TrEMBL record:
It comes from Curvibacter cyanobacteriorum. Keywords: Cell membrane, Membrane, Transmembrane, Transmembrane helix. It is found in: Cell membrane. The lineage of its organism: Bacteria, Pseudomonadati, Pseudomonadota, Betaproteobacteria, Burkholderiales. PANTHER family: ABC TRANSPORTER PERMEASE PROTEIN (PTHR43370:SF2), SUGAR ABC TRANSPORTER INTEGRAL MEMBRANE PROTEIN-RELATED (PTHR43370). InterPro entries: ABC_transp_permease. It is a multi-pass membrane protein. The chain crosses the membrane at residues 6-26, 33-54, 60-82, 89-111, 141-158, 188-210, 216-234, 241-261, 267-284. Pfam families: BPD_transp_2. This is ABC transporter permease.
Length: 306
């Protein structure tokens, strides 16, 4: 039972990275923008956050630096695709490639660096509950923050006027423009906000999840987060559930190795990516269902006055 409790705790921790990044990408896509650069963006944010903690000793500053790096790169991406009308998919891929290379270059001197001693978090009383206490109530605050973020984003998108405007821009930017809304500025704000959340997820990896810097340490999580938005049919609550599902699949490989399952480690390492492909293949069998839930202008450029 104790091993399963540890697996549950590790699942929540791993799922948090995917949840925060996927919720950020969800904001982008609700405004009609596809950002394929999440992987590179998260890598740059990971090294920015890690380096900041190394030099300042403050995790808070590290998370802010990660969010700032993510927002900055996302703003450049937004300027290219929204104002210069570059292809969203090609620009996103370029951002991803840039992030992989730049983070590797910037992180050379931090490979052997160590962070200050990590603080162990625990919720009073609840963390002492046998089995479930250590799994559920001794997590980093951002693990609970991901749940709060999901609830806040759900309220924002479906209960607030601003969220309604954002969704209208993603559905029909021409109509929103005709009503006097600044479509391009709204899209840029959504892209920057989404980039900041992807940056927070990247910083969480290098500061809290695995407190070290290794080249390429995001390890495909940006792509999985991107797939999660489709898997969740663009609904925040489903994004969170999907993140925990993929987080569980990721941690399952270590659990199976720990209990002595005789399977090559390479096969176990493939599990999260195989699960991603299988889920997307199953969802794609019903294109009408995707079309109903997908923002109508997703990936389509908007030209004011055209």
């Amino acid at each position: 039972m104790e091993s399963y409790a540890l697996l549950l705790g590790a699942t929540l921790n791993a799922g948090t990275v995917l949840a925060i990044a996927a919720l950020g990408l969800l904001i982008n896509e609700k405004a009609g923008i596809v950002n394929l650069g999440a992987e590179g963006l998260m890598l740059c944010s990971a090294i920015a956050g890690f380096a900041t903690v190394v030099h300042t000793g403050s995790d808070t500053m590290g998370f802010l630096a990660g969010m700032g790096a993510g927002a900055l790169l996302a703003a450049v991406f937004g300027w290219l695709v929204i104002w210069l009308n570059t292809n969203q998919y090609a620009t996103g891929l370029a951002l991803s490639l840039f992030g992989v290379g730049f983070s590797a270059f910037a992180g050379i001197s931090y490979v052997q660096a160590k962070l200050p001693e990590r603080v162990q978090f625990a919720v009073p009383v609840l963390s002492d509950i046998p089995l479930l206490g250590p799994a559920l109530f001794r997590q980093h605050p951002l693990v609970y923050g991901a749940i709060v973020l999901m609830l806040a984003l759900s309220w924002f998108l479906y209960r607030s006027r601003t969220g309604l405007v954002l969704r209208s821009v993603g559905e029909s930017p021409e109509s929103a423009h005709a009503l006097g809304y600044p479509v391009r500025r709204i899209r840029l704000a959504a892209v920057v906000a989404g980039g900041a959340l992807c940056g927070l997820a990247g910083a969480f990896i290098s500061i809290a999840y695995t407190p070290l810097w290794v080249e390429g340490m995001v390890a495909g999580r940006g792509w999985i987060a991107l797939a999660l938005t489709t898997f969740a049919t663009w609904r925040p609550a489903r994004v969170l559930l999907g993140a925990y599902l993929f987080g569980g699949v990721t941690m399952l490989q270590f659990h199976l190795q720990g209990v002595g399952v005789n399977v090559p480690s390479q096969v176990l390492s493939m599990l999260p990516y195989v699960a991603t492909i299988v889920v997307l293949a199953l969802i794609s069998r019903n294109p009408a269902w995707i079309r109903i839930n997908m923002p109508a202008s997703l990936g389509k450029p908007f030209h004011p006055g055209a």
